[in-house]
Amino acid sequence: MDHRSGCPINLSLEVFGDRWSLIVIRDMMFGNRRHFNELLAKSDEGIASNVLADRLQRLVSLGMISRAPDPSHKQKVLYSLTEPAIQLVPVLAHLGAWGRRHLPVSRELSVRAELLERGGPEFWDRFMDELREQHLGIPRPPGDPSAFGELRAAYEAELARA
């Protein structure tokens, strides 16, 4: 692949410069959506099936996600985050924090960003450990409370309130 320059910001934007790539990673990360149909049907932004198929293929080719047969269903494919995608947690936390401060966000969709911002690097590390367990099969430290559970509970509480 030819690159416009060796600038790290430019190279990162070449990977994530379209809106859908980070949305797919976000949905896999925060929604634990691992199948094509889950990513398609539960997309708040309404991604088209051809766009989703293209982004999944692109993210696999870039090594951001992996694709494997789903052991629980012969005709399904299971997508998993790879380590480089998992390491985007701090980036997404900062993007969410910036968006909460400067854009007209909804409470239910911004509560996880708020929790990530308040939790800081220690929370991000716990969340990344949990993602490694879910997607890479690497056990997380015993006794760590579930960061994913805290994020989900905060989101569900806001949905119930809305």
Describe the structure.
The protein is built from eight helices and two strands; from the N terminus they run H-H-H-H-E-E-H-H-H-H. 21% of the residues are buried. It has 162 residues and is mainly α. Helices cover 64% and strands 6% of the residues. A two-stranded antiparallel sheet has the order 1-2.
Secondary-structure map:
Layout: H1 8-16, H2 19-31, H3 36-41, H4 49-61, E1 65-69, E2 77-81, H5 83-86, H6 89-102, H7 107-136, H8 147-161
Antiparallel strand pairs: 1-2
Helix pairs in contact: 6-7, 7-8
Please give a handful of descriptors for the protein shown:
mainly alpha; two-stranded antiparallel ribbon; 162 residues; 6% strand; globular
User: Total helix count?
Assistant: 8
Order of helices and strands: HHHHEEHHHH
Indicate the structural class.
Answer: mainly alpha
- Straight-line N-to-C gap: 46 Å
Helical content, roughly? 55-70%
Which shape, going by the Cα principal axes? globular
User: Which strands sit side by side, in order, in the main sheet?
Assistant: 1-2
Count of β-strands: 2
Q: Segments where pLDDT lies below 50 for 5+ residues?
A: none
The biggest beta sheet reads: 2 strands, antiparallel
Rg for CA atoms: 16 Å
Question: What's the rounded overall pLDDT mean?
Answer: 93
> In what range is the share of β-strand residues?
5-15%
